[in-house]
Amino acid sequence: MAGIGVKTVQSKQARSRSNRRGRGRSGQQSGSTGSGRWWLGVGGAIVLGWGAMPGLAQTAPQPRMQAASLKSVAPIALPSAASGPMDSESTNSELAAELAKESGKSANFGSMGSVSNGSVSNGSEFTGSVSLSEADSLLPLSVIAQVAAGAETSTQITVNGRSIPNSWASWARWSENGQTRIGLSDGAIAQLVGADLLDTNAPDRQPIQWFSPMPVTLAARQVGAFRYLDITDWARDRGWQLRPNGSTLDITAAVSTLRTLRQGNQAWGPRYVLDFDRPTAVQLEEDGSTLIVALDARSALPPNSSTLEITAAGNRTIIRIPVPSGSRPRAFTLVQPDRLVIDLRPDWLPSRSIAWANGLTWRQQYLSLGSARFPVQWLELNPRQPGLRLRPLPPNAAGQTGIAPLVQTIRQWEAPAGINGGYFNRNTQLPLGALRRDGRWLSGPILGRGAVGWNDAGQFLFDRLQLREQISAGSQNWTLTTLNSGYIQGGIARYTSDWGSSYKTLSDGELGILVQGDRVAQQLTGGPAGSSNFPIPANGYLLVARSLSSVAAALPVGTTLRLQSSSTPSGFDGLPQIIAAGPLMLQNGQIVLDAKREGFSDSFIVELAARSGFGQTADGRLLVVAVQNRVGGRGPSLSEMAQLMRQMGIVNGVNLDGGSSTTLVVGGRIVDRPSRSAARVHGALGIFLNSP
């Protein structure tokens, strides 16, 4: 590995940089792909939470889920924790030996895993403080909260005097055996420090590795939306100072010196090796085709000797490294001497299995279909866990208009994990498919697309869903087209207060018929699309006639209406929670994919894209799945996604929105993709789980 010169730029100000986000396509009418009790304030998606659901105070408490006894079955073999984060192609020991040979020194090793979502990850996200994504600053969180677990929590953190303007990192303070303990959220350990989260089957214990020959196991506790790792002794042993200052945790860590930076080319692509005089805090972030490496280290690199851009400002060094197309970073640390190794490779995802909470395991690995290898990350839920609840969640509690970054929706509901949900129109920001919560249709189904419905007794139904609504006046009957939907059809649609306080016209010349109780109270005529707002009665509903002028005379003010509503299959009628996207992928272990039947376009059917899914295994476990681009290519087709889901042991499953919408969040941070590439989404599916 040849040495590499580095061009050093001295700077007193942070390099300004505009925030970028992936502009993907949502499932639109064309069918294109898109996307405890706790007091801790922490943004559609499958969302996980502990305790009573904040924001649902108006809803009566739900009974705990009851389910049949399940076997502990894992359909996919994962490597043991001892195997470390590297795949079978090269172990850390081999890498250490290789690097030691180059430098002429012996080497022990530690591991940082791979970079995921602008973050280092053996699944750990590692967004640097140098630059934040759009979602990082959107939601104002509680500055400090007293929680039921007896801990104080806050998102205010400084590192070596730098304020960390984020809401994905959190700290907690509690008393244990008469001593004050300090914990950092696992995301903060990974993102602010660069420690790797290793495999564990115990939610209250988390092994980490950071510039050490052997892993160190930290105690963990679940508080609200975060999982905190007790760093009190770990930080002390490393000479760090932890100073709680009101709602802020001030962290002071020794500053190291970056001595050398070397580059070499491996079979998979470039490798960068950074040598330090001591362990250093590292933050990694992906920004498009650039990897930003931010170090709490002085630079001792020779200036103006390479085009590689380095910005050095006092005790802070930032390096920008170009990333080859189709590759992502995988990073790990070595000791004797202390080094950071960054590989840029197309097969960047390390296998992992972390019992993140009781009833929730966070897993990832490559799955193969023929010669294609897909990076799959998923949450495995045990429905036997007391208090486990699933809820569909909108991004806007006031109505159905609006989209938001998934992390914002999840933080809004104070949930520790989640995935994007159903389709929507990115232009109008309106839902396109079923979203039913606690028996109320926030958005109705369209086109008989794949859906999942459930109740808190553990009953689940995966099928294609239709909703039939009919109004009658005397001897006249009208079948309604949609309920609370952004999907436009000629005929009469119905909107309720769950849509919002008003409805903005979606097409030209619409007729609004206000129904209070069961009587027509008023008729309103709209102008061009988007120019008129019709109020939606709280004690009734709004009918919107499109391309059906005759209904005005047929339903004059004072007319009494009868409304009938039923679902097909009828089993959905008794299920208070429903979310739909489609297509339906599996039923009873068989692939039943039929995208044309569900009204998807030909282009959607053949498209290769990142995909999200939700399914149930034969033993009753629930899997929340995100699949990104295959090694050396694009994401799976619908058929490939169905095969992957079946390979994972799913027997009943549905496809969710995908493409740039596909986003998996754990502990308030995106773990399956760079945060800047995640698009805003609409519907969410939420999972809440009480702490034992």
Description of the structure:
The protein has 3 domains: 45-52 and 351-465 and 572-688, no CATH class; 88-346, Immunoglobulin-like; 467-565, Protein of unknown function DUF192 (Jelly Rolls), CATH 2.60.120. The longest helix is centred in the N-terminal third of the chain and has 12 residues, at 92-103. Helix content is 8%, strand content 40%. With 692 residues, the chain is mainly beta. The strands form 13 sheets. The chain has an 8-stranded antiparallel beta sheet. An 8-stranded antiparallel beta sheet has the order 27-28-29-52-51-53-49-50, with helices on one face.
Topology:
Elements: E1 7-10, E2 45-49, H1 92-103, E3 108-109, E4 114-115, E5 120-121, E6 144-146, E7 152-154, E8 156-159, E9 162-163, E10 171-176, E11 179-185, H2 186-193, E12 196-197, E13 205-209, E14 216-223, E15 226-230, H3 232-237, E16 241-245, E17 248-252, E18 256-265, E19 270-276, E20 282-287, E21 290-295, E22 297-299, E23 309-313, E24 316-322, E25 328-335, E26 338-345, E27 352-357, E28 360-369, E29 372-381, E30 389-393, E31 404-405, H4 406-412, E32 417-420, E33 424-425, E34 430-431, E35 435-437, E36 440-443, E37 450-454, E38 460-464, E39 466-473, E40 476-479, E41 491-495, E42 502-504, E43 511-516, E44 519-525, E45 533-535, E46 540-546, H5 551-554, E47 562-568, E48 577-580, E49 584-587, E50 590-591, H6 602-606, E51 611-617, E52 622-627, H7 638-647, E53 650-655, E54 664-666, E55 669-670, E56 680-681, E57 684-688
Parallel strand pairs: 1-23, 2-57, 8-17, 18-22
Antiparallel strand pairs: 2-32, 3-25, 4-5, 6-7, 7-10, 8-9, 10-11, 11-15, 12-13, 13-14, 14-15, 16-17, 18-19, 19-26, 20-21, 21-24, 23-24, 25-26, 27-28, 28-29, 29-52, 30-57, 31-56, 32-54, 33-34, 35-36, 35-48, 37-38, 37-48, 39-40, 39-47, 41-46, 42-45, 43-44, 43-46, 49-50, 49-53, 51-52, 51-53, 54-55
